[in-house]
Sequence to fold (171 residues):
Amino acid sequence: MLKQGDQLPGGVLVEYVEQATEGCSIGPQPVDVHAALAGKTVAILALPGAFTPTCSAQHLPAYIEQQAAFKAAGVDEIWCISVNDPFVMAAWGREQGAAGKVRMLADGSAAYTQALGMVFDLTAKGFGVRSQRYSMLVVNGVVQALNLDAPGKFEVSDAATLLKQAQGLTH
Fold:
């Protein structure tokens, strides 16, 4: 399982881009994790699923609301990772007002979540394989802080906790 001080493994997540920009066409786009993290400080939150009660009411909204404070603390980007497809992540991001604040990254097959050792198997309840709920602060691909919630809990992966850790990080 992933821990503080670890280099994140390589992998690919998918981001649905709704507006064409230079070098980025519309549609699902692969995001090479190592390339996207290079030279950056990134706050990452991961959660069991888009449109789920705790994730939609508390977890993601606080990161969106605190985006400017994260930026002021030296965080270049905030990523939200979930085991959903990129279309679902894009729709959820639209509903939550995440555009320009939080990158909504899909791990549809849970391959990256498995590489991190963060799988939460809810197959018996009909939800399949999901991600555990966690947050982490990553600097140039290395985990500086990791906050892993117990299954079914939302206690330490919140925006306030990770923001405080980001503010305490010396660059």
